[in-house]
Amino acid sequence: MGHSDDIFSVLVDGELVEEIDCFDEKARYKVSSGENQLYVIGEYVAPCVWMIGVAPVNEGIPIPNWNIQLINWHNYSPALTIDCPDDVIIEEC
Fold first, then answer.
1. Model pTM?
2. Mean pLDDT along residues 17-43
3. How far is CA 23 from CA 49, 52, 73, 93, in A?
């Protein structure tokens, strides 16, 4: 989820694990478990809101069949939630 105009936050099981400063930059994370992987991308866009979504990591690699939802978090940012395996690795890239 995004905060203000420059902070992107990552939570695991409701606990904050990372906040990055990404003013005028996209936040991008690779989320992987075994051969399953996807990108999570967040960007602060006009008119003062966050856009958050997912993308495949490469052509021909499908997005995992995990439960992925966008929920209303703040007036200016959705929160992306992913139900994924316990061995998931989240890497900023």
1. 0.90
2. 94
3. 13, 15, 20, 16
